[in-house]
């Protein structure tokens, strides 16, 4: 069934694979989007954690325009200085020594999976190709990444599941250890499950997984496609736990809206990725990397991430108040930095709809959670505005609930009256 707010399938020539909202946008600036319906929307979805510096950030626009006037694409047959510079920047700021650029998150995760398998292959253990993943995970929509994510709804109808992924319950370290066998190559995990509902993995658990990998000669892969690039208030979310992975996938925020992803690895973990074993036509092209460099230039300015953390505390404190004031609608608030989840007591989709009706954009997620992913440039005025709209959305839902309750009560009275009527007739 299609809600009145969705575009009915068949209304355009596109695959009807997305349940699209009947709304488009003409322009944007910072945290704001101008809808083609003439309304202004406060964008706390950021295209699902992608427009990390908001819309039309002047430095990103300048970087893109400057590069667009020079050269767009040359292929990875040649050296690409922007790509080398971005790789240098990423390795200087992380555990990694090597980078492979992609166009998307799923491709970055694919590269991570291939890197882990090749590592054991060149180590003389080609039988070690299996990867342990966690329930509720999301790693992308390619054949391998749906197998890694393990969600039945994404696997159905696409033939045999790609072999080599063993899934254990979220948060179950014992199950993870028990799943390790002679064919195990790696453990793959999101430090905070994004699509799964902003479910953080406790820092102690990430440290325990690191130790487990070290004990068993496994590679630890972090999928930071959603959590990475400043979203949690650190450049990469795993920094909060004090440990580092061997391999990491990033995407979403690094391009600020331009399609760009990357797989980062230590020299040791990347040692199997020798000439010819992997490739991409578009990955890391000059346009994408010019924008990626500009994104990092802004985020790595002194104090930028401190501000993200400060505003995150302000926002989360206000959200805790909102949850307290509207227990019928909201259950709890969780997350790190500006990757925030509001678990709901009514359908999360209903809350997203009510927010949109109030001109505030958020994104649904698993575990009946609404994701709030403001641009990292959001400050008090945007937070205040979002709170006012969240209050209004909550009031809208409560009014609906009250109405439903009232009509249920009325129906009960009517039923009682109807039950009495024949009795009167009898007398
Ligand atoms: C979005 C996401 C992906 C997939 O990224 P695409 O660019 O859609 O391929 C993979 N992993 C995580 C954690 C994500 O949030």
UniProtKB/TrEMBL annotation:
Q: What is its EC number?
A: 2.6.1.11
Query: Which ranges of the sequence are coiled-coil?
Result: 380-414
Note the NCBIfam families from the entry.
argD, PRK01278.1
* Details of cofactor binding: Binds 1 pyridoxal phosphate per subunit.
Q: What is its main location?
A: cytoplasm
Protein name, UniProt field: Acetylornithine aminotransferase
Keyword annotations: Amino-acid biosynthesis, Aminotransferase, Arginine biosynthesis, Coiled coil, Cytoplasm, Pyridoxal phosphate, Transferase
The record lists the organism as Pseudoxanthobacter soli DSM 19599
